Amino acid sequence: MDATVSTGTEDSVWGGGNRPLGASYGKMMMWFFIMSDALTFSGFLVAYGFSRFKFIELWPIADEVFTHVPFFHGNYPMYYVAFMTFILIMSSVTMVLAVDAGHKMKQKSVILYMFLTIIGGAIFVGSQAWEWATFIKGDYGAVETNSGRILQFVNAETGERAALSDFAETLPEERIKHQANEGIWFENEGYKTSYSLNEVVEGFKATPNILIRTEQLNEEGEKTLLDRKESLAKILEANQVVEGANLVHNEYGHRLFADFFFFITGFHGFHVFSGVVINIIIFFNVILGTYQRRGHYEMVEKVGLYWHFVDLVWVFVFTFFYLV
Amino acid sequence: MAHEHKLEIFRGLLKFKSNTQKIWGVLIFLTIVTTIEVALGIVKPRFLTHGYFLGMKLLNWIFIILTLVKAYYIAWDFMHLRDEKTPLRRVIVWTPVFLICYLIFILLFEADYIYNVYTEGFITWDF
Questions:
Q1: B80 with B90, same domain?
Q2: Which residue of A has its CA nearest to B2?
Q3: Confidence band (pLDDT; 50, 70, 90) for B1?
Q4: C-alpha B120: how far from its chain's center?
Q5: 8 Å CB contact of A147 and B125
Q6: What span, in angstroms and rounded, lies between the C-alpha atoms of A312 and A95?
Q7: How many Å apart are CA B9 and CA B16, to the nearest integer?
Q8: Do B40 and B91 reside in the same domain of the chain?
Q9: Which of A66, A253, B34, B116 could link A60 by a cystine bridge, Cβ 3.0 to 4.6 Å?
Q10: Subunit contact B71:A315, Cβ cutoff 8 A
Q11: Mean of the pLDDT values across residues A222-232?
């Protein structure tokens, strides 16, 4: 066919450079990415909801898990996470201010606000690393039963949680870390607990004011506290000591709680980390004057969209992990 | 996005003089909402933890609604969806909202079913 049909629309429609819905190509693609990422995160959070509804009577109470604030001793539920949330919202604000300054072509202000955004992101990632370390290290210690349920200890006089070191005895026995080359090949201990099961059980029997708390939630929404007689019967079901949390054992309660905690906050933390890296790249471009020469700061706006999205996801993670 | 911004929030109840002012206003609002959430999470008023609506505690309803309010202001003012064209905004918001609602519905129903199998079945899971 040698005759070329001209519709007269090549330049206006198919010639490129179109801005459907008034958004540029880059911004539209950023929104595409954000939508797919939002669906990924909702998949994770709904999976968390699924497991929680499945074990609704056993699920750990977040207020009792995240009770620490750096440099302070004592029981401060939620304060530190609230601080982290505030930091992230604050860095979102400096990001919008950077975008706003970009519209006005004020290079100096964009540099300042981008810098503050990066600092905020770094504080958040650091806080999350600290939160992970505290969670992994553990608090009071607990024992796990044959069926994988967690038994925690409470001081009957004060009503406060009792740590293993408060009552466990030190027996003249040798603790050997179980290695894979001794016994069944796929079994080995990840870490050695400070007390053996025997020491905890003997110490428990010898200390009358220690009671056992099971994972079961009662009508008040609190963990069930057994009396001394029930406790003495229950301790016989214990088969190992658990300190801290990992992917297999979790002293705070159901192990899926720890798994989802690592997975969801880890995936979010990875987003924050990559957001900080992208922010740093854009920050240097701003300093070099790339966008000043280009005549617009749309790149700042696009990375800003990603940064706000990370903040948006945290708002949901905060609610479903720490509040509800 | 063009350089003009829509400067009123709360359906025109509050109108700001400049975009910068609006950003700080939204920050104050978000901080207040977060403070209310944290305070409720620590105090846990009895009538909220013992009152139920559609099988969920009133306190949890409040948390979820406040979260959606925060999400709205982050998306509308920080991600400036308020200034985008209406079709773009609808495509971005309603597609995920529809899919997520569907996902929540099926998975939570399924989980509740499994919970019932666990509790009413003749097998003990705690031994």
A1: no
A2: A22
A3: very low
A4: 34
A5: yes
A6: 14
A7: 8
A8: no
A9: A253
A10: yes
A11: 90
